[in-house]
Amino acid sequence: MKAVVTVIGKDRVGIIAAVSACLAENGVNILDISQTIVQDYFTMIMLVELDGERIAIPALAEQLNAVGARLSVQIRVQHEAVFTAMHRV
Fold this sequence. Notes:
Blueprint: E1 2-10, H1 15-25, E2 29-38, E3 41-49, H2 57-71, E4 73-79, H3 80-86
Helix pairs in contact: 1-2
């Protein structure tokens, strides 16, 4: 199953490392990643693939929320189909 992970917040050291570590600990593979910094604001979007039998999106979202709280950034994870439907013009 594919999902989209977005990260937004004030730039600081360790954001990519912490998010990637959380994903790796849960067997989530990063398929594509794009990140940029605009002035002092960090934005990242990742396309990931996860095994729904190993971890479900709501459980992954809970863990990523904890990482986000620790880093003072917002992290969202959505099933790829939901993300695509929400952003279709």
